[in-house]
Every structure is written in structure tokens, then in C-alpha cells.
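Field reference: sequence -> structure
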Amino acid sequence: MADAPARLFQIIEFLASSGDWVSVRTMARELRISAASTYRALNSLKKLGYVRQDHKDSKYQLTLKIAWLSAQVLDRQQLRQIAHPFLQHLTSVTNETTHLAVLEGTEFVYIDKVDNTQAVRMRSRVGQRGKLHSTAAGKAMLAFLPEAELQSVLRRLEFTALTYNTITDEVRFREQLALIRRQGYGIDDEENEVGIRCIGSPVFDHAGRLSGALSISGWTISMTRERLPQLAPELLQTCQRISSQLGHEEAR
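Structure field:
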């Protein structure tokens, strides 16, 4: 017998293949699960916005939220496929680790990473979540969000001190975001992890919306403060090229 999460996906797949409104009785019979279990699963999906119910005959159908979910996955796959060669090039010319990150709520997620040839590697990994207020990639993405979205994120953001350099004051943090908007990139000066310094810049899609951010990360012994202004033009140019590949007109 399938567990509750499995039943949810069984029902989603059944509704997707049916292409029409379906009753609880039909679903229960075809999927060989009880009507009560089917109803509970549908109710959960309805609350989450993935199915809708006809008020006349109580039948169910998938909503377009499923299409939205699929689009998010496809967008990330496209971003990663386009950006990966650029990450490889950036790592080869800097001999530092490069990351590709996307915004997810009040955090970000690494969706790609290219390691350098140095003996000691970054502990980061694809799929890992990170803080927005203490990282170069996170700050770069926040700085280029539309104001309404930025306000929404900042209201929920916890300015936790992770090192002695972490910015925990919102006023000072907003000032740094303004600087990032002017120069096009953000810096993590041992704010997220002692001994690690990073520089990050945003990537935009065909509609000019934020797609993610690219960052160059390294140990402070090689990623010196003096080196950051030297790396910035290469990073900005790489982000512009990725944005152009995504159809962003201003990057061309």
C-alpha cells in the first residue's frame, strides 16, 4: 500500500494523464486506494493550489500551478546548461572556485559549481543552501530584486552573525545593497565563513528578471582584498555573457 506522499503523486499523475475533470470515485477505483484516502489527498492538494474542484459536480482537475512548477525546473536546467561552460572558463582564468546560485525564499541554492586546481577545495556542494545576508551571491541577488520583492524578503530575513564580519544591522545592509547596485557586484569579506572571501554578480533572463548569481570564491590567502577589483571586470563580463545567452537585451 502506498504511503501518503506517494498517493499525492499518484493522484497528480492520474489527473495529468486524464486531461479532464475526474471524480473521487473514479480516481479511487482506478488507483485502487480508498475513497477516504483519495479525498484526503485531494483536499491537501487543493489547499496547496495544485488542484481545483468543480462546485457543480465536485470533480477535480489540476491547476496551472503544476505548469509553473515545471517551468521553474526547466528554467534552472536551462540556466545551468548555459552557464556551466562560463563557470569552467572563469575557474580556469582565476584558479578559484565558481558557483551558480538561484534565489529560493530567504535563502539561495547552489545549482552548479566548478572547483579550482588548488589542494584545499571549497566545502560547498551543488544543492546546498546558503544565507543571503552574508554571501556575495546572496547580496548580489537581493540588490537587484524589484523593490517590492526585496522588501518582502528583508521582512523575513534573520541577520544572524556567522562571523565577526557579518553585517547584522539592516540599515547598514541596505547601504551595502545600494553600493552593489551601483558597482554591479557584491563582496563577502569573511562574512559567511572565516578564511573565505567571495565576489558575486547577478544574471538576468530575457525579460530582465533576476535568474541567479555567479560567484568566485577562494581562501583569503589567494583571494586577497587587493585582487577583488581585478576579478570584478572578468566576473561582470561573464555574467553579461550568460544573461545574453538567456536573451537579456541589455547584456548584448
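Note: The mean pLDDT is 90.
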